[in-house]
Amino acid sequence: MPTINVDKYRLFEELGEQFTEESFQQLCFDFGIELDKDTENDPSRPKDQRPELAIEIPANRYDMLCFEGIAMHLNIFRGKEGTPNWRLADIPEDKLQTLTITKETEQVRPYAAGAILRNIKFTQDSYDSFISLQDKLHQNLARQRTLVAIGTHDLDTIQGPFTYEALPPKDINFVPLNQTKKISGEELMSFYETDRHLGRYLHILRDKPVYPVILDANREICSLPPVINSERSKITLETKNVFIDMTATDQTKLDVVCNIMVAMFSKYCAEPFVIEPVKVVSEHNGATRITPSLATRTMDVEVDYLNQVTGLNESPESICKLLSKMAYKAEPSTDPKFVKVTVPPTRADVLHPCDVMEDVAIAYGFNSLPRSSPNRSVTIGKPLMINKLSDIVRTECAMAGWVEVMPLILCSHEENFEWLNRKDDGTTAVKLANPRTVEYQVARTSLLPGLLKTLSENKAMKLPLQIIESADVVFKDDSVERKARNERRWAAAHYGKTSGFEIVHGLLDRVMTMLKVAFVTHEEGLEGKSIDYTVKENPSKADGYFIQEIDEPTFFKGRAAAIYVRLGGELKRIGELGVLHPTVLEKFDLRYPVSTLEINLEVFL
Amino acid sequence: MAQTGGAPAGDLTTEILQALSQKDPINSTDAFPQIPFESIKAALDRLASRSMVTYEQIEREEAFLEPEAEIIVSHGSHEARVFDAVHKALEGLSIQDLEKEIGDKTVTKLGQGKAFKEKWIKKDGAKLVALVDSINDVTREQLKTIKETKTHDAKIIADLRKRKLLKLQKVISFTVHKGDKFALEMIKEETDLTAEMLASGAWKDATFKPYNFKALGADQHAGALHPLNKVRSEFRQIFFEMGFTEMPTNQFVESGFWNFDTLFVPQQHPARDLQDTFYVSDPPKAGRPTAAGPDDKANYEEYFENVKQVHQDGKYDSIGYRYPWAEDESLRLVLRTHTTSVSAAMLHKLAQHKDENGRVPPARYFSIDRVFRNETVDATHLCEFHQVEGVIADYGLTLGGLMEFMDMFFGAMGVTDLRYKPAYNPYTEPSMEIFSHHKGLNKLIEIGNSGIFRPEMLEAMGLPRDLRVFGFGLSLERPTMIKYGISNIRELLGHQVDLSFVQKNPAVRFDK
Predict the structure, then answer these.
(1) Does any CB of chain B come closer than 8 Å to the CB of residue A386?
(2) Residue of A298, A313, A409, A432 for testing the chain B interface, max B β-carbons within 10 Å
(3) 3-state secondary structure at position A580
(4) List of chain A residues whose C-beta atoms are within 8 Å of the C-beta of residue B398
(5) Does ipTM surpass 0.95 in this model?
(6) Is A22 exposed, middle or buried (0-12, 13-18, 19+ CB in 10 A)?
(7) Model confidence pLDDT, tens digit, residues A369-400
(8) Mean pLDDT of A104-121
(9) What domains does chain A contain, in order, with CATH numbers?
(10) Going from the N-terminus, what domains does chain B have, and what CATH number goes with each?
(11) Which of B262, B245, B266 is nearest to B254 (CA)?
């Protein structure tokens, strides 16, 4: 959520009320913004700095990204003022400033719009807010200027009609904002490469054959969006007439930005809320039009719908009154089943009648809405079978004296492969494109790395340590839509002065018994039944499990076995147990022997 | 076993009782000078615990002879030895002869000086002669007394200490009196009730040693479930009681389609940034949504198209986001950022269960499972955490019903006095953040999110218009951290968790 810093006293003055911290907090809470900070009593605030409020704005309320928007909406919400009637200055079309878009811009940044604020009077505060709103729009709605970029100019320093063109870098030459010397388009990249503020926008143009530019009638460059304006046309506190250029790769967001910029700052014009439009000539794609649109949208919204979802029983008139607090113009429709709702040009967040419905609820007060039972129909609860199975195993292990751990799913490639003496053949592990650190390179394909890291972090504990985990690993799987699937595993690790192989083996026996899987002996001569385990002597057919020696580099030679299960006659290798190889211990920084077991639980579903 | 005795401590207790029968009180050092203090104390404690004796501990300083003083006691002081030698030689002694006679240069030298000072001897030419017939060897007498009594006048002690003949030591002894239950013999006590005693009946006559009820019992080497999973169990219980079915959330890798697009999260939404979401590089790309099996009769092509249209051009009374929706973006693979991707798939499945009137049955789903965010790790953020999520699909639901449900749900956890704040979430409208007044911090803290899923999301799935769907979510870690006062999430989840924390964490009882 964007956070906007506003001058506290100025805001309270604008709201015409001295709030206590508590009452202002309540107002924000009810309206759906959040008072994040009040520096009034902050000892670190310099004495000469006026107290500020940091206010968090919902990410879709672009019309509240500046002081003016916050003050206006809170005043409308409190019934102190109405929604302004923004309108375009009444100028014959042939007298309008024009911005002509050339076809070449399609290669880099195809859309543009313009607007003029006439006879504006800036104060330091409103000037700062004007700059700050551009920045907030750039960062949020415009996605770091990729979608939209805004340039503002002192209209009296440049000469219309304007053109929006795309020129080869070598044909571009101008003094950028806050610079004294001309640079060419070819120098642009190197010039701003190390600029902390502007450097991050260069990638939008890098390697493009042409750069977009706004030119005035004398073919002087006004701006090179989305990077920088010209020094010549820069606005100051004394600027009277502001020309705003906006260029974009997204038409919808261009219109939103255009409307918001002028809606917020036309209040400082000699004729408040009146905007001088610009004729955007775009003949190559038939998109010639007047900007800003300041288009309102009218919706007929069902009264029943609004009342039913909110649980209210309000008349159309009273609904209209509520909606006016949320900056709509609303009136009962000729059909009493509907209200006619006019969405102001600033409310780009309103997409559907449900947005209007939410605003009815906010205006009424969420916490004042009538309560009703959420239990309209009876439903039956049911666990997910794999979780139930997993819980049985976890609980049995805990009852057997083992401690459950919960390491992370993500781990480094090394931990998942090299450190376990395993090779990555590229067919198993899901790899991440953008991890911040090596700790999060792959989704684990084994529970062992997490268990071993946990042991390593707990070496100071009294030995032996016996830990278990039953959770998911992830495998690539080309046969499914997401190209990957989870697999529920169960693993255990024993850390002590002796290897503990038989202890881990015993835990396997115990859990198998609890899952009603018999132990099948694989050797001649081992016979009879123990008290705990059913031992079946013909391994070739009977269902059950057995273990068979394996030689795999994860384990110490002669001290590892694969675990096989035959269920319904089908034989499957479900995992392995063994004493870890000393080189594995060394990698995980473990000083004593470790025995582990790990199996796939899903075969027992 | 009851008859075996004869341990040294047993003997000592008997000896103490014997001594007390003859003299009451006794002083332990006097009575048992050779027995170490610790053994005496142990024996007295055993007797005292049976009220057979009472005792007070006495601490005093005792004087002990240094090795030089021991020599003085056996041979006399230096000056006395000098005098004796001189007195014995009737003709007097030369200094050399004196040395020879005494056989110790130091004694001779020190003794001469003192003997002169005491006017016991004098120099007569080259010879030393006695001035008196007999002397009183005061030092030797004093040291003799001290050796026997361990003490003397303070002034004398101080003087002798200055002469490095004595050292002082703290000595603890006990004055022992007969107790209420004094007897000459201590009855043998058993420490434990054994099977043999039961068999032989010896338990009837045996006396049992009292337990120390202030000590802890034996370590159980207990197994333990992880605290987070214990909290998870409690949540699951609440969900089951409220008729929720657990969702198949065992699918960490999702496509952008299921994780974002189906939820009406636009493709330029900040949540889809590299800074927030883990993208998968291998495998490179998801397939277009398809049926998972032969039973899945849903028309995924149509759904895919609906989602595209509602984003790009608007549909279902929505004007949409009006941007060019890209299939490539939709098919990018991510680690799911929320379990709501599974809720979406479940609701899409629900839409396939229409009756002849186009109605789907009401449903309640929940899950508690891992989600992934590409966060910078700190005390309250990990790249992985657990999301608790619930979905209620029914007809005629209202916002007041959602709040009523959340009151019940959190009430089952013992969290009351909830407040609801308007919020923004791309897939719910209205969206309500749930706050609770935290008594410790004395302020409202956010404990969860909730809302009604947007029609753009539900109608694209083919769900009927008048079916409303509540969604709510919270993290599993946050309430757990609040409940157990944990300030660092890494102490709760991940490999850095302390195993003793897992072992000692109490059972989770939300209702308590």
Answers:
(1) yes
(2) A432
(3) strand
(4) 308-311, 369-370, 372
(5) no
(6) exposed
(7) 999 988 888 999 999 999 999 999 999 999 99
(8) 96
(9) 3-77 (3.30.56.10), 87-291 (3.50.40.10), 297-365 (3.30.56.10), 385-604 (3.30.930.10)
(10) 78-136 (1.10.10), 228-504 (3.30.930.10)
(11) B262
